[in-house]
């Protein structure tokens, strides 16, 4: 390209709103979102803390066959009492009344709770986005059908459903006459089942939001433009509309995941969620509620981790919301602006 | 109480009877003004914005004087700083903006005013007319309340007195049935009436200075002419100085005493309307004047011959014009009616009926009309985006719909696939017609990807070829739409529409969102491409001057029906239908003398048909 052409291009670029152009110079939308997100101090520190927590817990207790670095890998094994069960060098989080290492238990609980949180997020994402996208894109009878179904699911009280399912699962083996081995297998997969089941109850709010987004976006001209170009419905949905609603989806799934952590805790605390031999943070609190006065560390450590997980995920969601919303612009600090303007006018 | 309270002076003869006896809360800055007094002195006014830790100049070194009763037009493209320099006068800059220099309203410095003093100036001494009346008026309050609100902020007066004053103003701006309109909400009024309400609101406290920021840009050409007429009359009746911010040289020719031309934040030309229009000094001013499509340009090229537009008096639909013999029309509509299907509680809406229209291969047919006349509807129906409910529609010999005399045939989605190859569309707003999440190279290549199944290198070569043809650098293919300027985006829109070399192109107001000089370049490109590719085109626009430049035939639409179809030259120079005449007379022309002549002509036409 010769210089003349370059000048020509530069000339046309000025025509548009130059200030806006300057703000977004050479950045893709993804880059803008990423930049806004990385400048959000709260969200970035929350992300750091959450990742560190997850890494710490997973590396301590290991994944599947890979053992972790913590010396007591079995969270149910009893050990000789040290320091009367209070936190000591060997047992930094203390021990319970029969000598179980609380650190191993809490770390296993963190792992379980994180697993359930992610499962709930993924299930909600898949079901909510599919239902919302189909309803919003096709409208008409399909929309009516899917949305009335959504209304129905919304009316289900989550806690009660969770409790009923919990009881059914615990009673099923006896009724069906399963062998002990298969019962053990079912118990081992309990957290996974619980995560998916909760996800299947929690998707309606996401579906409604996605439907709204699709209803608005399908009227945009670039959708017509794609249709004129000959794109199929599926292509329009996946390639053109979905990427444009990704902000709403990510933000809401994140916020939903933070409330899911608390929900799992509540269910487990009531005895309907994760049960022994599995360990989750909620079920640790539930088991140890009697020890609140005598061995408070059994209560406080899982509680602290619940707060850390729920808070950090919430912060990340907030940061994402700010990053994806084009209307939130960081207003520069007044004093910094004033100083720089004084200097600027002096220079002139 | 407040020491600054003083009873208002004797009202000026033209208006203000209702203000008599009201106690003024806000000080009148610098005393009363008479016609010819200098109201505003602006010296070395600069506006800077704090962007990415850097001060960015939006306007620098703006200086001018303004007398009462005078109209100053500030002209420039978007981003030239014309709005920001005027907004800084009433402290309406965004938080990251700073104004320096001096602007004195009757000797009182406006730059740096804050709090109460600033509020006393706003609305009271300086009135503001915004571009978009629908968003500038609050939808939950009645328009009467909103006029009275400004009044009661600055005066201690009884609600009844405020209402009387508001009604007086509503009469002044010629709102029909002011008493009934007082209690209406903004959405119950038409666009033109809303803009009148905004003007009334700006005038309610008898301001010394009126700032009108693109007051007619959002309006139809006929409504624009009415608002301009009103503003011209107000000049005679109100003593305020007026700053008119616009990019339309035609509007300027109609109104301005003096003109400032701005480019990239700098004043490049400053002079009386006479000087600017007839002896522009700066090359940019010349370029700007040349870029404005000038209605009636074709008259100079061809001598008047026999006029032959097809216009039928009475209610009969306009018949089909005879096409080129032997050629299959690229687009053919025969007695077509188009409906927006019923959805939710709304009934189906018939947006166009009895349409007979032919576009021959290689020809450009202009479709003009006001907003809501159904021109876009026809374009969308031609692309099978909206169903035809009556009549016969065919594109390049392929029947899309044939519903007449008991027959009912509509092409299914599958049958439409080959049809999609033959048509393309360029949308009005290039910002919303490109997927913001796709790099533009991918947007351009999508039709090729879907229809010709091109992949990899082949596709990429073709995309580069298309970028070349719309005169954009190949390196741009990886950018996203928001990184491009409006003109560049519209070029992308054109490249995408032409990717499959369609037989028919629907251009739906492709340049109305662009600045004048950018519009000129895009139109030239469009004309060149039309020569090269030879596609037939239905060019939809509200701007008759643009349509005149490009098309060989013009079809005029009014309220869902075609009222006149004919060769461009005949329609522009000898319109038959009264509506066409009104439409043509309303187009402002960038030449003060000619514009004055046209204005008188227009008033005569309006009188003859008894409409206003």
Features:
heterodimer; A: 348 residues; mainly alpha; MetI-like fold; 16 helices; disordered N terminus; B: 612 residues; alpha/beta; Rossmann fold; six-stranded mixed beta sheet; 37% helix; globular
Structure, explained:
The complex is a heterodimer of chains A (348) and B (612). Chain A is 71% helix and 0% strand. By secondary structure, chain A is an all-alpha fold. Chain A has a single domain (48-347), classed as MetI-like fold (Orthogonal Bundle), CATH 1.10.3720.10. In chain A, helix 5 packs antiparallel against helix 6 (140-154), helix 5 packs across helix 13 (246-269) and helix 11 (221-228) packs across helix 12 (233-241). Chain A is flat, with a radius of gyration of 26 Å. Chain A starts with a helix and ends with a helix. In chain A, 37% of the residues are buried. Mean pLDDT of chain A is 80; it is low at 1-18 and 21-26. Chain B contains 23 helices and 24 strands. Chain B has a domain at 331-573: 3-Layer(aba) Sandwich (Rossmann fold). Chain B is globular. By secondary structure, chain B is α/β, with parallel strands linked by helices. At the A-B interface, helix 1, helix 2, helix 11, helix 12 and helix 16 of A face strand 3, strand 4, helix 14, strand 20 and helix 16 of B.
């Amino acid at each position: 390209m010769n210089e003349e052409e370059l000048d020509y291009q530069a000339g046309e670029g000025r025509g548009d709103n130059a200030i806006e152009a300057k703000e977004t110079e050479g950045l893709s939308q993804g880059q803008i979102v990423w930049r806004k997100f990385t400048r959000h101090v709260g969200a970035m520190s929350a992300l750091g803390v959450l990742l560190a927590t997850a890494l710490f817990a997973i590396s301590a207790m290991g994944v599947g066959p890979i053992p972790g670095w913590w010396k007591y890998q079995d969270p149910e094994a009893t050990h000789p009492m040290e320091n009367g069960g209070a936190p000591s060098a060997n047992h930094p989080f203390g021990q319970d009344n029969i000598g179980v290492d609380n650190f191993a238990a809490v770390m296993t609980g963190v792992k379980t709770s994180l697993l359930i949180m992610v499962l709930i997020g993924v299930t909600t994402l898949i079901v909510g986005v599919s239902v919302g996208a189909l309803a919003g894109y096709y409208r008409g009878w399909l929309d009516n059908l899917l949305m009335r179904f959504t209304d129905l699911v919304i009316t289900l009280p989550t806690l009660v459903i969770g409790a009923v399912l919990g009881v059914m699962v615990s009673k099923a083996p006896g009724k069906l006459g399963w062998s002990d081995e298969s019962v053990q297998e079912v118990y081992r997969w309990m957290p996974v089942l619980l995560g998916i089941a909760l996800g299947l109850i929690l998707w309606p709010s996401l579906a409604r939001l996605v439907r709204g987004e699709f209803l608005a976006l399908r009227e945009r001209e670039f959708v017509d433009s794609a249709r004129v170009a000959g794109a199929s419905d599926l292509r329009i949905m996946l390639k053109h509309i979905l990427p444009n609603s990704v902000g709403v989806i990510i933000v809401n799934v994140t916020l939903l995941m933070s409330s899911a952590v608390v929900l799992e805790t509540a269910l487990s605390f009531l005895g309907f969620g994760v049960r022994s031999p599995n360990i989750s943070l909620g079920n640790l609190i539930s088991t140890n509620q009697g020890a609140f006065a005598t061995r408070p560390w059994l209560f406080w450590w899982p509680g602290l981790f619940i707060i850390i997980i729920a808070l950090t995920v919430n912060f990340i969601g907030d940061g994402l919301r700010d990053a994806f919303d084009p209307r939130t612009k960081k207003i520069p600090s007044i004093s910094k602006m004033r100083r720089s303007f004084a200097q600027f006018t002096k220079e002139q | 109480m407040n020491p600054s309270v003083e009873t208002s002076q004797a009202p000026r003869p033209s208006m203000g009877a209702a203000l008599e006896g009201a106690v003024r809360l806000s000080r009148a800055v610098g005393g009363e003004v008479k016609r010819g007094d200098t109201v505003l002195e602006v010296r070395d006014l600069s506006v800077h914005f704090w962007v990415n830790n850097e001060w960015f100049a939006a306007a620098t070194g703006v200086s001018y004087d303004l007398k009462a009763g005078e109209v100053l037009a500030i002209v420039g493209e978007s981003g030239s700083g014309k709005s920001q320099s005027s907004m800084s006068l009433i402290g309406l800059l965004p938080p990251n903006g700073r104004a320096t220099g001096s602007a004195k309203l009757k000797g009182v410095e406006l730059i740096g005013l804050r709090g109460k003093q600033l509020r006393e100036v706003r609305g009271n001494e300086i009135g503001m007319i915004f571009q978009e009346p629908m968003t500038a008026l609050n939808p939950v309050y009645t328009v009467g309340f909103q006029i009275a609100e400004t009044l009661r902020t600055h005066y201690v007066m009884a609600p009844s007195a405020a209402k009387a004053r508001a009604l007086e103003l509503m009469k002044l701006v010629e709102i029909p049935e002011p008493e009934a309109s007082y209690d209406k909400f903004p959405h119950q009024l038409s666009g033109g009436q809303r803009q009148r309400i905004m003007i009334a609101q700006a005038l309610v406290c008898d301001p010394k200075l009126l700032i009108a920021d693109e007051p007619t840009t959002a309006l139809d050409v006929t409504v624009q002419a009415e608002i301009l007429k009103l503003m011209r009359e107000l000049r005679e009746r109100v003593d305020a100085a007026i700053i008119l911010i616009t990019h339309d040289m035609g509007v300027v020719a109609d109104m301005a005493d003096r003109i400032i031309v701005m480019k990239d934040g700098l004043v490049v030309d400053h002079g009386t309307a006479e000087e600017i229009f007839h002896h522009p000094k700066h090359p940019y001013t010349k370029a700007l004047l040349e870029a404005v499509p000038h209605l009636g340009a074709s008259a100079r090229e061809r001598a008047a011959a026999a006029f032959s537009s097809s216009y039928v008096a009475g209610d009969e639909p306009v018949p089909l014009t005879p096409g080129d013999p032997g050629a299959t029309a690229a687009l053919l509509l025969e007695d077509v009616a188009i409906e927006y299907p019923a959805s939710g509680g709304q009934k189906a809406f018939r947006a166009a009926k009895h349409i007979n229209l032919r576009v021959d291969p290689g020809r450009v047919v202009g479709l003009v009309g006001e907003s809501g006349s159904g021109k876009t509807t026809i374009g969308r129906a031609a692309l099978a985006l909206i169903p035809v409910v009556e009549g016969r529609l065919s594109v390049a010999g392929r029947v899309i719909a044939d519903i007449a005399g008991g027959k009912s045939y509509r092409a299914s989605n599958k049958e439409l696939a080959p049809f999609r190859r033959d048509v393309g569309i360029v949308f009005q707003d290039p910002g919303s017609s490109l997927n913001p999440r796709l790099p533009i190279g991918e947007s351009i290549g999508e039709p090729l990807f879907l229809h010709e199944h091109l992949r990899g290198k082949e596709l990429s070569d073709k995309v580069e070829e298309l970028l070349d043809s719309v005169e954009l650098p190949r390196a741009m293919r990886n950018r996203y739409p928001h990184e491009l300027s409006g003109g560049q985006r519209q070029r992308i829109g054109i490249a995408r529409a032409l990717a499959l070399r369609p037989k028919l192109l629907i251009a739906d107001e492709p340049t109305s969102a662009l600045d004048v000089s950018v519009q000129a370049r895009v139109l030239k490109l469009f004309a060149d491409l039309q020569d090269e590719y030879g596609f037939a085109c239905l060019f939809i626009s509200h701007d008759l001057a643009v349509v005149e430049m490009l098309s060989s035939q013009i079809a005029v639409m009014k309220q869902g029906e075609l009222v006149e179809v004919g060769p461009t030259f005949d329609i522009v120079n000898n319109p038959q239908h009264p509506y066409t005449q009104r439409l043509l007379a309303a187009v402002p022309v960038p030449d003060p003398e000619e514009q004055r002549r046209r204005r008188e002509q227009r008033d005569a036409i309006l009188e003859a048909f008894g409409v206003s």
